[in-house]
Design brief:
It contains 5 helices and 3 strands. By secondary structure, the chain is of the alpha+beta class. The protein has one domain: Winged helix-like DNA-binding domain superfamily/Winged helix DNA-binding domain (Arc Repressor Mutant, subunit A), CATH 1.10.10.10. The radius of gyration is 20 Å and the shape is elongated.
């Protein structure tokens, strides 16, 4: 499978995994989170968490900061905004002809 350069596709791919989605939810719940704290929310081993954090970093979802021997992660607000924009575009497209109201048919007595 060829890697895409489309930033929107990369962003969506980054969130398209149950473990990564759990990580994003934990990040959305508060401030920075140490990498060592993700194993509790995800029920996976540390090497697997590290892989998912790398995917999230490469896809633009998170920013990192090294503090001593620990790496802290934050959700990037611009990624959330972009995700909202993409979802809004899809909702607008889907709301086209499907959103029209149908006439109400009253039963005859």
């Amino acid at each position: 499978m060829q890697r895409t350069t489309d930033p929107d596709a990369r962003l969506l791919h980054g969130a398209a995994d149950p473990t990564r989605l759990a990580i994003l939810r934990q990040l959305a719940a508060g401030g920075g989170v140490c990498a060592c704290d993700f194993t509790a929310c995800c029920d996976v081993a540390q090497p697997t968490v590290s892989h998912h954090l790398k995917v999230l970093r490469e896809s633009g979802w998170v920013r990192t900061e090294r503090r001593g021997s620990f790496i802290w992660y934050w959700l990037r607000p611009e990624a959330v905004d972009r995700f909202r924009h993409i979802a809004g575009e899809l909702i607008a497209v889907g709301a086209g002809p499907v959103a029209r109201s149908l006439p109400v048919v009253q039963p005859t007595t």
